[in-house]
Amino acid sequence: MINQIYIIMKKLILLLFLVTIIPSALIAGVYNTHNEPDSAYIFTYATNKANNHNGLHIAWSIDGKNWHAIGPEYSFLKSDFGRWGSQKRMFSPVVIQDKDGLWHCLFTVNEEVGVIAHTSSKDMLTWRPQSYNYPTDGNRTEIEMSYKRKISERNLVTISGEEQEGIITRVSWKVIDTLIKGVQLAEYKNRLFGENSSQDITRFANLKPVEATLTIHPEQSKFISDMLIGIFFEDINYAADGGIYAELIQNRDFEYSPADKEGHDKTWNSKKAWTLKGSTTPLAIDTVAPIHPNNKHYAVLNGPSVQLVNEGWEGIPLKKGEKYIFSMFSRVDGKGGKFLVTLKDKDGKVYGEGALNISGNDWKKREIVITAKETTDHASLELAPVFAGTVYLDMISLFPQNTFKGRKNGLRADLAQTLADMNPRFVRFPGGCVAHGDGLGNMYRWKNTIGPLESRVPQRNLWGYHQTAGLGYYEYFQFCEDIGAEPLPVLPAGVPCQNSGTGGHGQQCGIPMEHMDEYIQEVLDLIEWANGDAKKTVWGKKRAEAGHPKPFNLKYLGIGNEDLISDVFEERYAMICNAVRQKYPDIIVIGTVGPFWEGSDYEEGWRIATDLKLPMVDEHYYNSPGWYIHNQDFYDRYDRNKSKVYLGEYAAHLPGRPNNIETALAEALHLANVERNGDVVSLTSYAPLLAKEGHTQWNPDLIYFNNTEVKPTVGYYVQQLYGQNAGNEYLSSSLELSERRGDVQKRVVSSVVYDSQTGNYIIKLVNMLPVPVNTTIDLSPLHLLTDNAVLTVLSGRPDDKTAKPVTSDITVGEELKQELPAYSFTVIRLKELKQELPYSFTKIRLKK
């Protein structure tokens, strides 16, 4: 009887929600109406607003004279052709319906290339991926003929006082009604997802502190991934060179090129960051006889009165008493002699110095160790031959001896430690968009980043600067091993970045099919390099020669990143995935489903993953805090029999892109829901990870830094708390609030996990309300061994960017009363079990 009453009450509450919350126009669709026409006209068009970026618009009319825009400036379809910003434009769209009822949209993409884009849809609301130059589905001849006829029949009509040019088509009223309701639903969602804390003062004006009861049900438990929290590294925002890669000399190889900046910066060349003193002639750069064909440029000095100076990365930071390894390749014409190496500031004050003797006409590496006399942030490196003759210099390097774990050619210790402190279970590298690059020639090829530094292939960074490849695949794998994280390399799927501006206006080109076998072998070689026997395999031997005889035990491999799911992509993607799985069936291949949580790339990416039976797919989305609040069931509805999910890139974005308490709590709330769905979501990583102050191409980021300081954000502490308080078993729980309002209920979230390695329970509680939540937690079902627990609270104003977690020891009993401050994230770590629980898998380690 109680259950029946409960069901009836749920139905009444749902009906009340529909009546009071969802717009009446959406509900009207469930009733028959008799005052609407059987048919009317639609007008499909594109405006020149925003430089033709606004896409396809639709208006309707009963008489063909008075027109009503369906959602003013609402974009039913946008172009995917070319780069974001300069391209993705739509001209002269034509929407036609084929004999099977399928809608087709054809349009031109810009003023420069004669390309016709095509896509199709069942309802004009959801469109398939776009193809270019010809239609790929439906009756091709019919579509082409209709397109040519419609182009010649374009009409001029007035909409909202502005004259527009487009195509008039008569359709059933049901078509128009579907479009109207689709736009209304989209607008309703946008209002929901646009909610943020700035509205809380009115939304919760009369809200009093809330009472809550958390009841834990350990008998209702399930295995979840113990790999949930990882890190995503991409060389964006100067994350590598000038960042975590500890090299202190900028442009050490003289390989900077104007092409790095696409010609926009005339000073960005092989002399960047270098100056020549004591000479009336400019610094000479030559390419006649380089160290290696991959490193063509080198400096030419004529001694003894010149000094070659490098400014570092806006200064060279030094710490008193610490040692720095200086090295360079050199050769000389003539006898040679003494060569001075000095670290000094602009006023000439010396912070460190050394000397070496150089001679010989063949390239040779020289190295000395310099000890810093004092601490400074703004030293420069000065090199001076004290003998007559010509000196040739390349690969000029200054490395702190104190790198992370003392690795040569290693990582900046403080930045790397900050990452290690997150306790990440995996590290994804090298991107991101960097992985597949700007055009086919700019794809990130892993083989170019291993071996001696002078033989590696530097190239333009997609984000508009330079990559030395000093931080390459060997260093990535070594870092993973050093912090106990699984390596997760991501390789291009045979196509460049969809934002590429080179070789096809975005991802409209791919590796020629006659070269795909060679590229697939490159993918397979990576696995052999990582896992192959050092004595029995070619690439395993190369790994051993680099200094790592034991295999790296690679388990995961990503193929593709945020790709347009085009025909060009799909063909190459399937070839690569199938080849890897055939030769290395134990490798977990991670596919891609585009850059958004919905849309054609997402839908088609999942279709392909299902067809190929991929074990995992990589989802990306950057959404507002409101999206995370109103999509807490996002993963609850996923099919457990299909691919697992790697949430590879995500973050909460507000206008202005801050990283503050509000965005951090939205991410904490989302991760609580991800933990509940840890049986389908296997991995997650926030993005982007690192950003150098003054050199950001993207905000927000998790960790900001300069040459001497590391500045973790509020969001970093959320990731750290989840990483340090992960579990491998999820315990069902119920959280009852005294306030029944839906907007209140959605802003208080809990998650309870068990860590079988430590025997600890961890309770996570998120409060995104402007008032405290006084919570009573029933701990009696957990049978705790001790009354000791650790409490960590992160809280502050929504716009607080400097909040840090506060940790304390607390005493607990069978019941714990804990206040959740307004706008807070609370973690309670409970100690060991008193006894084995009756369910059989309590202490079993989750199998990967």
Uncertain residue segments: 1-32, 834-848
Q: What structural class do the secondary elements suggest?
A: alpha+beta
Strand content: 25-35%
Task: List how many beta strands DSSP finds.
Answer: 42
Q: In this structure, how is the largest beta sheet organized?
A: 9 strands, mixed
Quaternary state, please?
single chain
Nearest-integer average pLDDT: 92
Q: How would the global form be characterised?
A: globular
**Cross-sheet strand order for the largest sheet:** 40-39-42-37-36-35-10-38-41
Explain briefly what this protein structure is.
The chain has 848 residues and is of the alpha+beta class. Helices cover 21% and strands 30% of the residues. It is built from 16 helices and 42 strands.
